[in-house]
């Protein structure tokens, strides 16, 4: 089965979503990510979606769930790299990504995570 | 056209290859990456292939070329996350990945890049 790689970098985990994630791939990502947070004691998760041309409500919900699960395990989630037209479409669809922090790009997202880890 | 996202983090660029790259996607990655190195003045490129179950000689050559191009632009390339059976297959196929530095995982690869950037 396809699975999305999770990169461990310092205190943080990095996930780059490049393919449309549906059903099993999404569940698999949630499983693997929570497992990796527990194993590594990571303080934050950076999710990059710059490779996605389209984010539907299902993917948005998966990302929201990942953020909630990570928070329970004491890791903050920052979503980065959203294409401008993806942001427009999400708002037009009424998807708010409540509870998910966002940053413009991976660099800014990593800075945000570092600041959160210090406080 | 499908394109592989390039993440800019501090002094380095990060590429996670999750899909089989062929022809146009590979050329596109070379173009984008060299462009981004020039734009950002990045000192290193981390290429993660932990999501690949198979690395054929074409992909190995693309990675080798990327390393050569990056070096000309004063950026070192480190390849990380190779699955053990991928390493076995590459050696059995006679692919040596000459000129490409490797590290076990993204964390070690990033440390390697940082040390190279200091020296």
From TrEMBL, chains A, B:
Residues 2-113 form the STAS domain. Signal peptide: none annotated. It comes from the Bacteria. Pfam families: STAS. This is STAS domain-containing protein. It comes from Alteromonas pelagimontana.
């Amino acid at each position: 089965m396809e699975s999305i790689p999770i990169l461990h970098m310092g205190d943080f985990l990095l996930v780059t979503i490049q393919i449309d994630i549906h059903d099993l791939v999404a569940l698999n990502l949630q499983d693997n990510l929570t497992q990796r947070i527990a194993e590594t004691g990571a303080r934050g998760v950076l999710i990059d979606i710059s490779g996605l041309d389209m984010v539907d409500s299902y993917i948005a919900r998966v990302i929201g769930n990942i953020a909630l699960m990570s928070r329970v395990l004491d890791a903050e989630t920052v979503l980065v790299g959203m294409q401008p037209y993806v942001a427009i479409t999400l708002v037009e669809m009424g998807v708010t990504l409540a509870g998910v922090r966002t940053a413009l790009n991976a660099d800014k997202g990593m800075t945000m995570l570092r600041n959160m880890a210090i406080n």
